[in-house]
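Show me a record, fold above all:
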Amino acid sequence: MFRNMSFFHLDGAWPDSENAVSEALDAAVFKPCGPLTERSSGWVAIDPDSSDNLVRRVNGADLLKLRSQSRVLPAAAVNEELEARAEEYRARMNEKPSAREKRRMKAEVRDELMPKAMVKSDRIMGYVDLKEKLLAIDAGQNTATERFLLHLRGPFDTLNFTPLAFRKPVGELLNRIFFGDAPSQFAIGNECRMQEPMDKRSNVRWTHFDLSDPSIRDHVANGMRLTQLAIVYDDRLSCVLDEDGVIRKLKFLGAEDEGDDNGDPLTRLDAEFALMTGTIRHMLADIKQLLGGYAATG
């Protein structure tokens, strides 16, 4: 269901019912791009076939979906038409267009081509854990994470969202797992990334390796810093954990072997969401205990 997770503290009162959340999000519902609009983002129904609700509450968590639509206007197409118009201008005026005239022509070209441009959509999922007051966003890039937060702050302008942090660095836990010194529910995977402490541009990535090999461990023992580490939590999920607490490449182990759902997509969605939120809740609780609790957000 989710591939990545960036976590944020939620400071403020979240609506106490599914309908109340949906009504608040309705103020920023998705609308398709207009003829001259490059991008449009807004909230959409979790399962439009069963309900128009913009949120789905399961297992004490609210699932949200942000849709963004953008017009695809390649720069090469704009430049091609701009060059043709510049040539026509030179032939008509016996001089090349000034910088100001070229800017005017470029804006004119974009306005004419934009309504004809193709559109594409992407969707970003997120959920709010009501009890823990945490927001998780499934976004692989910071720009997508910020877009989700931007559109969530609109309907809930009295709430604050701050990146989740612990009293001790996540890197301490990565090192403990890497050297086999972590509790049994945290097992090492087969992928990691290391960085030279004095040169952030110097990175080494190990993929599909036995990370217990001394020749690999020696790099960290001799001063390189772990910035990412693949882990297996409680034999239930595998992921790559960043030193900043972001989860990537999230996968639930054995989920494909579970029984069917009688062909009901909504039932399957609810089951997957409940499994995911419950497991992540337990994993964060264990990480929180090992790293001395959450850092103060005030």
